[in-house]
Write a structure and sequence with these properties.
Pfam families: Thiolase_C_1 (PF22691), Thiolase_N (PF00108)
Radius of gyration: 19 Å
Distance between the termini: 13 Å
Protein name: propanoyl-CoA C-acyltransferase
EC number: 2.3.1.176
InterPro entries: Thiolase, Thiolase-like, Thiolase_C_2, Thiolase_CS, Thiolase_N
CATH superfamily of the largest domain: Thiolase/Chalcone synthase
Structural class: alpha/beta
Shape: globular
Largest sheet: 10 strands, mixed
Number of domains: 2
Organism: Verticiella sediminum
Length: 392
Amino acid sequence: MTTQTAVVGTGIVPFGKFLDRSIRNLAEEAVKSALDDAGIDAGLIDQVYFGNSAAGLITGQEMIRGQAALRNTGLLGKPIINVENACASSSTAFFLGCQAIAAGQADFVLVVGAEKLTHVERRVSLEVFGSAVDLEETQPPSIGSGSGSIFMDIYAEKTRQYMAATGATREDFAQIVVKSRRAGALNDKAQFRKPTTIEEVLSSRLISDPLTLPMCSAIGDGAAAIVLCSRNALKKLTAPRPIWVAGTTMASGLGASAPVSGAVRVSRAVYEMSGIGAEDLHVVELHDASAPAELIHYENLGLCAPGEGPALLRSGATDIDGRISVNPSGGLLSRGHPIGATGAAQIVEVVMQLRGDAGQRQRHGAKVGMAENNGGQIDGDAAATAASIFCK
């Protein structure tokens, strides 16, 4: 395997609910941090890919989202490509940035994911998610019958099916939250940093049966940025700490006709592309928009055999510093899920882990990591799914 693209800089801001912060303010901080980490200034960047999902619905800013957000960063004049692909927006931006370097079109690419979901009217924030499904598709009666979050109803329906197929329990899902909050407590960028217990999770307000409030990712704001560099351009850096992109791929949903989910398809594709298998992974950041989704993705990504997600969780292998440390950032449940920023944030965490910079949540000896992200919904399948593998 010969890799030609490296991550040489990352930046991330604290995630949370910030009514007083704009997308511009969040993005500027993340970009500065990433450029400083790479040891370069904006002048060396050849292209920018700006991932955002909801600005048009929350703030009204459309068409030139990246140009507006980055106008004070020294990046105007560069090609700025706006990328919207639901929760996979900045994962898609990363995929495109890697393609640009692989094609020889750029030596330095900046990938940004930025999102502001909070609004003075909560209704406006919730309506964002209703636009990430095919509006001409008829949903089952159970979808839309919960507390107002259409995607939590979708996850609840999938959860009930998963419980019937595997014997997974509500206690298993609560344990995912406990694990997530434990990681979040060690991450100064996480939205939720208070540890919890299984009992507290199970006794919390029911959102969409069987999901209680802590089992659902929350509304939040945030930004993350990544500097990509070609192998040949590494010599331009004074003290590079490259983490190599072993493979990156994505797919759109096939709907009910799909023999397997998008997560299965992209994970197998990136394993083949990179020559790295699930058994080689030390760290995985995956799309746990609900607690049961983590168990489901254990199986989708081949971290265990079908039906063995609960057993893998119970073994402790996926905990902090476990054999396969899953979502050591706290994941979407605790780090937070400002949807357009999530994919970039996952990659930032994997890079930190492979660099050995994750502090108390470090998976010791981590050399190989994966980031997997889903976005939207098409007839039971994620509308967009992306996966990338990284190595030292």
